[in-house]
Specification:
The protein is an alpha/beta fold. It has 15 helices and 25 strands. Helix 12 links the parallel strand 18 and strand 19. Helix 3 runs antiparallel to helix 6.
């Protein structure tokens, strides 16, 4: 049986504690994965502390070179990585390929940003007493980054933490999701051959209490976490004075106006609602359609949903694979049942088969039900009608989350009104909130987190400004 070592201070290490890793769809054995304990976590932090000055001294050219070589090697192994992602997480292979390609882009963007980590000149001679003075501002790496990533984008969300850390000159300790460790460990094998300083990176599959010890430790300077709101805010409470980046999901809304291209809207909404079984933090969870076009739009959504491929994620025509485990499918099932008990109507789907849940549309759903007010993280979407645009905006804002929202309209005034009014990190015009490219500032407000990802913005979070005052 294959044993997969972890990476401690850049070197492969086997540990006595392991867990059996299995294919999400067919449960075939994927080998034993080594688990880090508290001593391993402490050793990784110690190594990162020792590597801090060497990482900070790497030239921007050296950082750029490392990041470009990572991108090249991921590109060369993209098919292998895509199939590992599909085996580990049940993500349909076509979506896995797209994710791998995005991770190449993320490392390439970070490579460019490594050369642009520039400061500014500040005029200080604004008072007679400051004549002859000039301020120079430069950004310096904060130190070790503790990165914790989820299963649903196991290479690109890792890239969004590891690549900016390297670009900023920070050591990084990655705790990958237990369901997606092999993808992260393959990235570790790529990094290990690139000549980074010893201690520049560790990849530690570990239990949650060990991950919490990393977050609590004062030797870590930054915590970058993507995952559930419950866990994210728990970690924030114990992180102390560290810089925090939290991407915590949402229950994204789409608003469709009468002047929208309904065919484009319907096709994008169905993809945004059900791709990867809805296990996307910016999936379409709530659709608000103007009453003038609601019936027509809903009929088309149901037609398109009936054609969605459900099944073996290794098949090219599948969009909806299994949920990550049966417990997740049972939770989705219970949330839909709760909504039905409170008056919701199931228009299609609403059925579970083991780890699978059929793509589901609900109407007449009370706002207090979990499928409306919490993150469903599954293939379930709520459809509602509205009379006026202001009411739709208010309904979209009626959420503890605020990650992204989509608005379909040809009206520039309405688009700008949505931009000014919606309480989210990003408003996507004439597309679904599921849209993301990797250079954009990505993150949310309210319960959806703190800070922004995207290499440029993560580098800003991983560094801090320092002022030099010069008297001529």
């Amino acid at each position: 049986m294959t044993t997969h070592p972890l990476f401690l201070a850049g070197a492969e290490v086997t540990t006595p504690s392991t867990f059996r890793h299995r294919n999400t769809y067919d449960h075939q054995d994927l080998g034993e994965v080594c688990l880090a304990g508290r001593n391993d976590a402490a050793a990784a932090l110690s190594a990162a502390s020792h590597a801090r000055s060497r990482m900070a001294r790497l030239s921007s050219g050296a950082r750029e070179s490392v990041l470009r070589r990572v991108a090249e090697q991921i590109h060369a192994r993209q098919e292998e990585l895509a199939h590992i992602i599909t085996a580990e997480t049940g993500k349909p292979v076509s979506l896995s390929r797209g994710e791998v390609q995005r991770s190449v882009s993320t490392f390439e963007i970070a490579a460019e940003e490594a050369k642009r980590n520039v400061g500014e000149v500040v005029a200080l001679d604004t008072l007679p007493s400051s004549e002859g003075r000039l301020g120079l501002v430069k950004r310096f790496p904060r130190g070790a980054v503790v990165a914790i990533t989820p299963f649903n984008f196991p290479i690109n969300l890792v890239a969004h933490k590891v690549a900016p850390a390297i670009a900023a000159g920070c050591p990084v300790i990655l705790k990958p999701a237990p369901q997606a460790v092999l993808t992260a460990l393959m990235l570790g094998r790529i990094l290990a051959g690139l000549g980074l300083p010893e201690g520049a990176f560790s990849i530690l599959p570990c239990a949650n209490d060990v991950a919490e010890s990393l977050v609590r430790d004062d030797r870590a300077a930054v915590v970058s976490f993507t995952g559930s709101a419950r866990v994210g805010w728990q970690l924030a409470a114990v992180a102390g004075r560290k810089r925090l980046l939290l991407e915590l999901g949402g229950n994204a809304a789409v608003i469709v106006e009468p002047d929208a291209d309904l065919e484009v809207a319907a096709q994008r909404i169905v993809t945004g609602a059900f791709a990867n079984a809805g296990q996307v933090c910016i999936k379409v969870q709530r659709v608000f359609a103007h009453e003038k076009i609601a019936d027509k739009l809903l009929a088309r959504l149901l037609e398109l949903t009936a054609r969605v491929g459900v099944g073996d994620p290794a098949h090219e025509d599948v969009l909806v694979g299994p949920l990550i485990d049966e417990a997740a499918a049972l939770r989705v099932e219970s949330w839909v049942q709760e909504a039905v008990r409170q008056g919701a109507n199931v228009l299609c789907g609403g059925a579970r088969d083991g780890q699978f849940y059929r793509p589901t549309w609900l109407t007449d759903v009370p706002e207090t039900t979990k499928v409306c007010c919490e993150e469903v993280f599954g293939p379930v979407t709520v459809f509602a009608r509205y009379h006026d645009f202001e009411a739709a905006l208010a309904a979209a804002n009626s959420s503890e989350f605020g990650l992204q929202a989509g608005v379909f309209t040809r009206s520039l005034p309405l688009a700008l009104q949505a931009f000014e009014t919606l309480e989210v990190g990003g408003v996507i015009l004439n597309d679904v909130p599921t849209y993301r490219v990797d250079q954009m500032p990505y993150g949310g407000i309210k319960g959806s987190g703190l800070g922004r990802e995207g290499p440029k913005y993560a580098i800003e979070a991983f560094t801090e400004p320092r002022l030099l005052v010069i008297k001529t």
